[in-house]
Amino acid sequence: MKNFKMPGLAWQIFIGMLLGIITGWIFRENPHLSTVLTPIGDIFLRLIKMIIIPIVVTSIVVAIANSGDAKALGKLGGKTLLYFEIITTLAIIIGILSANIFQPGAGIDFSQLTQNDITKYVKTATSQEQMSLMDTIVHIVPTNPFAAIANGDMLAIIFFSVVFGLGLSAAKESGKPVINILKGSADTMFIITHQIMRLAPIGVFALIGMTVANYGLASLIPLGKLVLVIYGTMFFFVFVILGSVAKIFNYRIMDLIKLLKDEIILAFSTASSEAVMPRLMSKVESIGVPKHISSFVIPTGYSFNLDGSTLYQAIAAIFITQMYGIDFPIIEQISLVLVLMITSKGIAGVPGVSIVVLVTTLGVKGLPVEGIAYIVGIDRILDMGRTAVNVIGNGLAAIIIAKWQGEFKKNTA
Known about the structure:
18 helices; 74% helix; Cation:dicarboxylate symporter family transporter; symport; membrane; transmembrane
């Protein structure tokens, strides 16, 4: 026993996934399983969500206050948003091309499908449709930063944190005590994150167990082609599209995947990108991304750079037109790209965002929203994949922006 070595976090999470799959399958008809596993999974996710906003606020404020150059910050913000728009547009185009090539919705037998309730998504999408693009931009500026923090309004939180950081920088000596307190708070939150991550295998076990018990494998059979097309397209996007972008900036996508293997597995198994945000920031900083860039790019990317989600939305929209046998010519598909470019940004951060964006997009295009009811049942399975892609995309974004800024300092230690 003296030579026993505890496996790394990635292996612990993987073992938790396997045990969760086995437990969920064996006890799938046991009504008491939910009573046991659901609270465990929920507590783990709530612990993660508990630390996200304190980390985002303190990290951004300290990073901006220490950099202190509003002009440089504007340049960083401009490059970041431009990069996000290019990459997410590519994701939409790749998704539409894939759906047209592989036709996942062709020949679907409706009798084999189960309809699910999508009322809550339609209600959320309807409320969001009432906000124009300019309303969304105005909403980024909070009237009450504490209300934004309480509501988890990430874009408003980022805006306030940037402004507060610039204010502390301008305050010079009188602002240093506040910066020191916030820096200490940020360091403390990262230590808490490390402690919470020790519970990740248990949380993953519970979440995967409930997923398998609730949906099983039978739900995948009628829509198996859709699942295969989405996952296949995600692999293509990561290794070909993001891999090519990384190569342009003299970086290897496989190096990033090796670096983030723990975070990718955790994001996949929990279907929560929030679960890995603090560690994602720490990991990219460990290889040379400056803190002020990781602190700005990654939280912003959680609203503007959801590559996996936008890719899924494009495929799902075309899938529904194919399922209903609707003629959807190329000019309409180009229009769909433009609609998704707006809707995927305008309602970022709301619960069930991918389904809500899809409801909004189909509504704008006059396509049957009720088609979503047939794929909601497998959304958790799809959500796991797109969450992992979102994490890879945002990790790469921080590295690319750092290199583009000429501030990437490769760690040779």
